[in-house]
Design brief:
Shape of chain A: globular
Radius of gyration of chain A: 22 Å
Low-confidence stretches of chain A: none
Order of helices and strands of chain A: EEEHEHEHEEEEEHEEHEEHEHHEHEE
Strand content of chain A: 25-35%
Number of strands of chain A: 18
Distance between the termini of chain A: 5 Å
Oligomer: homodimer
Chain lengths: 301, 301
């Protein structure tokens, strides 16, 4: 599971940082999270293959999070894409994209599906053999959703010398899935902890942009391996953060601490900040294991 | 009158060239012509003030000519713009922009007007004290318009020693506007050619993108000081040019020659061309005074 930051900026355009966009790479698939203007150029710059993007997750309909989407879709079509594409995001995205395709008289060569996200609490919205994705409401000026990407556990490894000769295939599958095999009256016949091992554990990545400080998300993102949380401002501008429904670096760090995540990445920086070292220090004072989102950088999860 | 190229590329995104956008600067106003994705970043990069853009001219609704518009409008609003903005372009642009502002819950602090261009022959669509703008149909896959920017003549300079003492203010204005002053029975009383001089002559800039080879435009763009004409391909791909309703470098040069323009700038280059020297040579063989559009370069008209 690898995260690549394509844009760590916020709404005001800047030569320092691109608007929000990220790639989560898992099992040779690229999951695109938000898609600000210019994202398709960032994808080319960092040599990320767009045909490996099958699912796109848009947090909300402020332009710095989705204005690059129509250009990316158009380019996929120009590149003769045939594979279906699914876009998850708030209601309205369907209408916005469709009207632009209509006036451009662009007939897509591929199937484009929209899934409107409209949940008031955490809701699983996507599942394949590798990942689950859960959407959850953030606290912003317009409907805005965070996304939790949870890797599925791989089957456990059997300890062959511990298996009885007469074990059935069904019983083996149960053990590999981390379940005990029970006898007729419900007693443990084979204990999966004794007969299998787990070499990797499933990872979790939580994406939270944009949001005011919002403790309601803590249960959902609890124990995530990486939390990306917006930190548009520093604490000296907390009033501006509150007014615009954004967070400070300290607030992002407080959420990371309360949610007991392993690592915090802060991003969505206001264009007023050229040097981000103070933003990082502010977060680290509350949550030590914090990193800055930097355009083009990769983070192993 | 100064032209600044912000993007000389075509639909397939490229690290070499940005999609179509240009600034025509006259009398401290910036006229924006087309607005592909990323135009607002190009404006920042080349230090062009967006508050001096009062009028935007969009040729057609293929994305590489307008996907940057909604981002630019949003940024103008973030920057607390108060001055009205007028956008000229094909029908549909109003709907596309309005729906995105609606879902972003963006209330504009300035007046945004749309003028739908729908002419079947050359039509004056804009006029102020410095410029006239004429729209004219091009030949593309969807409705597409060229724009001719015609500088207005400045008032002529008086030759003071030739003016009679008793000349009135009204008579002086007539002479400065290039009109003779007549007496009661219609004879020339004061000849403007004898009493005034003209130091500059009004310039014309014609913008033609995207279009197949199309001689119908020649009358409108005749004698322009600069013609920008798309030249997506070289002549070896003339079949592809014809099929996609684009032009080759040679065809652009032929139009320049037939229209007797002073200078040709070719642009809208396919992303397949890294080195453009052959494209330039191909055009120059037919029309010597040809230049390449290069992102960030300025051209005095």
């Amino acid at each position: 599971l690898k995260l690549i930051i394509l844009g760590s900026g916020s709404a005001t355009p800047s030569l320092l940082r691109n608007p929000s966009a990220q790639i989560l790479n898992e099992a040779d698939q690229n999951y695109l999270i938000d898609c600000g203007e210019g994202t398709q150029i960032q994808l080319i710059k960092y040599k990320i293959k767009i045909h490996k993007i099958k699912n796109i997750f848009i947090s909300h309909l402020h332009g710095d999070h989705y204005f690059g989407l129509i250009g990316l879709i158009s380019s996929m079509n120009l590149a003769q894409r045939k594979e279906p594409l699914t876009i998850f995001g708030p209601k309205g995205l369907d209408e916005i994209i469709t009207i632009q395709l209509k006036y451009g008289q662009s007939n897509l060569h591929f199937k484009l599906d929209f899934v409107a996200i409209n949940c008031t609490s955490a809701l699983k919205i996507f599942e394949n053999e590798f990942l689950d994705v859960t959407a959850f409401p953030l606290n912003h000026r317009i409907p805005c959703f965070g996304y939790l990407f949870s890797q599925k556990g791989k089957p456990r490894n059997l300890i062959k010398e511990k298996l009885p000769i007469d074990i059935s295939v069904d019983e083996i599958l149960k053990l590999k899935n981390g379940e005990n095999v029970l006898d007729e009256i419900g007693r443990v016949k084979f204990n999966y902890l004794q007969m299998t091992t787990q070499q990797t554990y499933p990872k979790k990545y939580a994406y939270c942009s944009d949001s005011a400080y919002y403790e309601n998300i803590i249960d959902t993102i609890k124990n995530a391996d990486i939390l990306y949380h917006e930190a548009t401002f520093k604490e000296d501008l907390i009033n501006r953060a509150t007014f615009t429904h954004h967070s400070t670096a300290k607030q992002a760090a407080k959420i990371a601490h309360l949610a007991n995540v392993k690592k915090l990445i802060i991003g969505h920086f206001s264009s007023r900040y050229h040097d981000l070292s103070e933003n990082l220090e502010e977060a680290k004072a509350t949550f030590t294991n914090t990193m800055l989102a930097i355009d083009g950088e990769s983070y192993e999860i």
